[in-house]
């Protein structure tokens, strides 16, 4: 499998990087490393993370600092599509429509 970071997820990642950079170099670096680890895990074992109970078309993975990655597995094309990367304290459900 390969991973695809869709447009909204890419925007989320830029916003997260900008926000975390206000706290020094370490938080953005730790987040990036944790996200890269997620990418490796999910491409090797795409079903390892649970289905998101509020919208079961997505699977949800915890990254770091309370951020969650929402993705779908496209078995036919061999792609893991990452749709959003959001903080768990946000009102997530409307953002996944």
Topology:
Blueprint: E1 2-5, H1 7-21, H2 26-44, E2 59-62, E3 67-74, E4 79-87
Parallel strand pairs: 1-4
Antiparallel strand pairs: 2-3, 3-4
Helix pairs in contact: 1-2
Descriptive notes:
Helix 1 runs antiparallel to helix 2. This protein has a single domain, classed as 2-Layer Sandwich (YaeB-like fold). The protein has two helices and four strands. The protein has 97 residues and is of the alpha+beta class.
List the defining traits of the structure above.
globular, 97 residues, 26% strand, YaeB-like fold, 2 helices, four-stranded mixed β-sheet, alpha+beta
**Mean pLDDT, rounded to whole units?**
95
**Structural domain count:** 1
How far the N terminus sits from the C terminus, by CA atoms, comes to 25 Å
Reading the helices and strands in chain order gives EHHEEE
| Alpha-carbon Rg, integer | 13 Å
The CATH topology comes to YaeB-like fold
- What is the name of the CATH class? Alpha Beta
Per DSSP, the total helix count is 2
Largest sheet: 4 strands, mixed
What general outline do the C-alpha atoms trace? globular
CATH-assigned homologous superfamily: RelE-like
- Pick out the low-confidence regions: none
Report strand %: 25-35%
CATH architecture: 2-Layer Sandwich
Structural class: alpha+beta
How many beta-strand elements? Answer: 4
